[in-house]
Amino acid sequence: MKRYNNIKGILFFAAVAFLSGCSEGFDEGLDIEPTGAVSETTYWSTVEDAELAVNAVYAELDGTQMVMALDGVTDIGYHSYSNVPTFNDVRFGEIDPSNGTITGIWNRYYIGIRKANDVIANIDKVVGGDQDMIARITAEARFLRAYYYTQLSSLWCNVPLITEVLDINDQRPTNSKEEIVSYVIDELDDIINSNALPLSYSADDVGRVTQGAALTLKARVAIRNSNFTVARDAAKAVMDLNIYGLYPNYEELFQVVGQNSQEVIFDRQFTVGGNTYNAFGYSAASLGGGSGVEPMNGLFEKYEYTGPINPDDPFENIDPRWNYIVYYTGQPIGTDTYNSWPTSTTPDKTNSSEFATVNGYNLKKWVDYESFAANSNLGDINMILMRYADVLLMYAESKIELNEIDTSVYAAINAIRQRPTVDMPEITEGKSQAELREIVRDERARELAFEGLRLFDINRWQIGEVKAGLVQGMHYKNESGQWVILDYGRVATFNENRDYCWPVPQAEMDINDVITQNQGYTN
Amino acid sequence: MEKSERKGFSKPCSLNLRLSLKLTALLLIISVFYVEANVYSQKDKLTLNLERVEMKKVLERIESLTDLKFFYNNKKIDSERLVSVKVTEKPVTEVLDILFEGTAIYYTLRKKQVILKLNDTELPSKSGKDASSIKDETSNTDLEVVQQAISGMVTDSNDVPLPGANIVEKGTINGTQTDFDGNFSLEVGDDAVLVVSYLGFMTKEVNVDGQSSIIISLDEDAAGLDEVVVVGYGTQSRAKVTGAISTIPTDEITQRPVTSTANALQGQVPGLTVFNSGGAPGVEDTKIRIRGVGTLNNSNPLVLVDGIEQALGTVEPQNIESISVLKDAASAAIYGSRAANGVILVTTKRGASTGVTLSYNTLFGFQQPSFFPEKADDEAWMRLENTAQVNAGANPTYSEEYIANVLAGTNPLQYPFANWEEGIFRNGALMNQQSFSISSGGDIGKIFASLNYNDTDGVIKNFNNKRTTMLVNADLYANDKLTFKVGLMYRNGDFTGPGHAINSSGVAGQQIVQALLHMNRNVVMEYPDGTYDLISGQWNAAAMASEGETVRTQNDIVAQGGFDYVFNDALTLKGNVTYKSNYQGTSTFMNSLAGMKNYLTGEPVTVSGWFATNSLTEATITEKELSQRLYLDYNKSFGSHDLGALLGYEEIHYNYKNVSATRQGFFNNDLRDLNAGGADNQQISGYREEWRLRSFFGRLNYSFDDRYLIQANLRIDGSSRFGDGNRYGFFPSVSAGWNISNEPFMEKFSDGTFLSNLKLRGSWGQLGNQNIGLNKFRNTYNLNEGYQFGGTPVSGSAVTQAGNPDITWETATITNIGLDVSFMQDRLEFVAEYFWKYTDDILLQLPISSTIGVEAPVQNAAAVSNNGYELSLTYHGAYKENGFNYSIGANFTDVINKIEDLNGAGPYFPDGFTVWQEGYSINTLRGLDSPGLYRTQADLDQYPARLSSLAGIGNIIYKDVNNDGVISQSLAPGGDQIIIGNEDPRYEFGIRANASYKGFDFSMFWQGVGKQYHTLDGALVEGPAYQNFIPKEMTDNAYDPVTNPNGTWPIARAGNNWDIVKSSFWLIDTKYIRLKNFQIGYTIDQDVFSNFRIYVSGENMMTFSAQKLFDPETPRGRSQFFPQTKTMSLGLNIVF
Questions:
Q1: In chain A, what residues touch B913 (CB-CB under 8 Å)?
Q2: Does the global pTM surpass 0.90?
Q3: What ipTM goes with this model?
Q4: Nearest-CA neighbor of A452 among A293, A218, A262, A244?
Q5: Measured distance CA(B900)–CA(B866) in Å, rounded
Q6: Tens digits of per-residue pLDDT, B566-608?
Q7: Do A14 and B26 touch (CB under 8 A)?
Q8: What is the CA radius of gyration of chain B?
Q9: Cis-peptide, bond into residue B847, ω within 30° of zero
């Protein structure tokens, strides 16, 4: 029986060995820990964990879309068409709760808020470490959360205010815009008074939140909500820090050399090796761009002439900022000359391809041809979110609205007009409040075009109808030799009872039983 | 950062490692033991104490204690004579001497056989060591008493010899094969029964009955009812199958000039759908679906090649022995958690039992793009573009002078009109395949070895793929009971193409075809000095098809070591350890064209995007999979009762690693090492994946009298993809069959002339799908949420997707009813199946409130059903020797797909064209509802709402479905989109016909879809709106108030973006029938080789489609696909 005994013995041995295995039995080896991510049970033990977590909150800051392209929904711009609802629909007053672009923006702000809440909720778990550092990280997270709420309340008005880490089945109702704004101002006051944020950082940390940024955000949220006293004081506090100033070269301020200059208070940072974007993506086809956003006649009309108007050249003697912001026919572009007229043989000819401008102009602000011609896919100019010129104009506007018109108001406006590369004539004293109101509003449009601020200005001034009507593009000379303004007969609409607030995204309305849609939108 | 120290300590021991060690040890012990046994048996010392027992009992006892086997003639030797033996520790020979002392019996030892003979003449004085009684094993004279040499021939019913037929002595492993003339010779016992089998013929048993020469004639077995079907972990006779299993005639695959096995499967099996996205060589672009799309997730069937999960593309068609498609739960349940989408079992060839067969196949082919969108002729093209500009109020793009020059071909640099097709397509792209194989077998084992080489040019210039595959399958007999099985497959693939050959999603040729379809043509494609015009600084189809270089190298190894241990006729233990290693390295080098000067003006050209700087991306993927399985197989007949059982264990441990590195700014376009690139813009990324699956499975079959069949399966799978408590899933199935034609009451019908087989089958079972990402059951901090400060990138981490600890398998429940009927000795065969497939607990990212700020977790939420039927019919004409012989076969299938449940949520929009909504197919299309074009003022009045204020006569009408006065592109009632159809293929069919006459053979295979729709996106309909590609359909049909008032396509207008949105207007009927393959061969009658056949073959040579715009097999989208190819080839098959 030797042979079978042996086989049976082996099988028995094998069976026992298989079944006994390790003490964990059948589950052993089936619990495989991730190797590219950290399980939540082991996170939050050191200051470094907290620093990594707060870095991730910055990653949701507004970038090219909200800085370069957002003006495409206003009177001064146009956003290109796409098969899915985008800013193009918003531009024409056809805002739909299912609009994918605005849904994406909403989602991104709430992702940022979640990340910030996660830092604020968990940083107490960190044992030991540099307490100043922990205070700074907490303040950074709170500032970023306040920034996201500022944007949410400015775009959607009423949104859920969430200040803790939610469980996946939680649903929260809408809070009023007033509640959000007052929460943001309280938070910013706390942050400012705690002095946890430095005035500036060493080179490796440039781009983190500073005390100046907190004050500027406070001025911004206040002025957006017509709280001019708070806005004036916060803006003045920034001016009194005496660390910011206007950068002399307007064009270069939005190019590589102007980055992190004394005019920049807070920006969305980019760098090769980290986040980058297609440097010319929103710009002209001949640069390899897709004409994602285009300046329109509405912007052209804001600019003043510094000399006589040439009937055969509408761009002669115009405010130089127009030339820094816009590609129009005849301007050098890359190694060529921009030509978008219907007679053009260049890729920039209007509507000649999906990439070409539709209305004739292309965006020149933020384009740094020399720096990125070699590799436009690695665009990394920081997107400025807050700069000193805005602070000066907010200061002037608050004082005008408070009717505290004094030389400091003129000084603030003229500093901007007389920046060395702009050199526009100064505004002379003796203007009425109404005159000054118009001046400062137009100055904001001229100075801050395509920096993602025009929409908020239109909304707070309640002048939404400026973008309604025939949508007009470039000036060009037609076959009969006459200067005409390009249009396709397309008319934009504005519904003042609805369009000052974006709709809560349809996806959120579908899932959230306790949220309320903004006025005027149907589901 | 010391994160790694805190990610949780690893387990102190790994069961997996232990298991492989154990299994290896087991294998070693068994083999070592047997080596020893062989040594011992000859002179083993036996202890026996038997009183007055029959002699045969003694012999049996000796057989059980040693591995000796006794052979004797019962008629001559009285084995029932009572004997007594009492020995202690005596060698076998001594025991036998004692046993036979005083009898006329003497014995011969031949290896392990002991042959007993009767000495008729005289009683030997002494047996045993006496030289006269122990015969030398090489002497045959004495063996003839019990072992006789028989020779003979095997023929078909028309006396045509059958080479390679198998002859086995029943109940033994003793056997041989016929030679090329159908002859064989074999030594057998004189009572032996020969079992003679040959593929395509009915197996026959023949009594030797003392004959020394025998001619055995086999009857053709048209239906192959005795065919053996490969099932999970084993084989089954077709008659005993109770599930829905289709097999594919392998000559349908091996004889076609296809480079991919997946493509060859199309249309061959009802219920199996193959979607082809493109014809790029070496880039697998096919999707396979069995019985519809069963889930919202990964719907790929499980493809097992010799039991190991592999891509179908890795198998050379010439190496395939058989393919089984397991379609219902009863057949697939043995694969449990991976089988919800069906299983395809591929078995590669193994060696012949005896003899040597060498074969060589070669093939040369020429390929062309098949059914690529036909462009308008140049003049019509330019005039339509002009019309479009004029209609938009602009100047014509092309002057009359320009048009005249283009048409005359004069001064092409001044009046360019780029013919992008010519710039990128290659007509008559070559392919060649060489394959050589040897199949051999003998006493010690058998072996199959093959070498395949395949060199295919793409129909887009500069695309090429070379593939070499080596396969060795060896079976080594350690002894009668133990066979070692070794398999080694090595495959090398070398793909080369331009820098734009493969996009980031792995799709070949996409950007090049995109350039062809989207770029204006009034530019110079290539100047005489090799420079180009670039549109938007980077677009030029010809430049993209020639600049830069993509090199993809694949090295795949599958090494298998296993054993079969046969305990006895009924019980076999099988084990196997397999190591699979796949490597894929892709180098993509993009040339820089910066500094290029215009040929005419000498001015620098604006270069941007991918041509602005040179860059190199090196991406490597390595996959490792170690798996092992061990199972016991039991099969036994008790009279009319057949019982089968299977019990097994399997474990799979998979590792994946992906590393990618990019540098830019290389010294020049020729230095293509990463080290030659600039370090400043470098990017590196990588990740790993690991999973493990541990399974236990069992099967029971029982059949009574070949009439009533029943089978049950159970698989228990444990998967690392799920959390504690949810790791193990149970997948049961049961099935039953009734062979009605075997019933006594059917005898009068089933005498063979009319009804030859009638079987009813039914099955029910559950399968799983574990194909979701890893770590979905826990919250993890994603470390890729970085940012940058002051120009320095910093790391960042956050929870970006919520985990769901409760997730578990998707479960598919399939019920199947099948009917097999055949008539006229199986010459007419009919198979019908009806099935209900319900997939539940589908893993879906059910939306959560966006204000929570994390991506929604995966939840078991949705349910999808697929109900349908499959029919197949085959007819073989009666065989006529050297006459006209033929067979035809057809299959047909239809499946209706429906989302049954989305947990009350939805609709979801998986992409811009489709919608997931309860009650509708997964592939439901949405779009605006259009009754046609505005042709009259009445139309304008009837449909006042427009997408654009510029829309008017000649533009597409959209219905204002929700009556809100505006046309909005979201689903009604919020917007005006409706469900316009779905893109599920319906009424799929394949038709095959074979015929032969004397040396000629002919075959053709048609495949088609009876109902299918597709929506057009951009590209083909944009045309002059953006100076895009203009198809001939457009110039023929564009509405024009003067020249073509009945035009069915919208009026041409530059900048028109309101006619190109998704709508029912652009829903295209894409039903088609295509001649997938035809072949004409001639077998030359000669004496040098045993077979010599030449043939011509055509692939995709004819297509009939309801539309002429694009290849009906391409998926929805912008038609930016590597074109399908049609191939003419010339081939040669030689068997030595």
A1: none
A2: no
A3: 0.91
A4: A293
A5: 10
A6: 998 889 999 999 999 999 999 999 999 988 998 998 888 888 8
A7: yes
A8: 35
A9: no
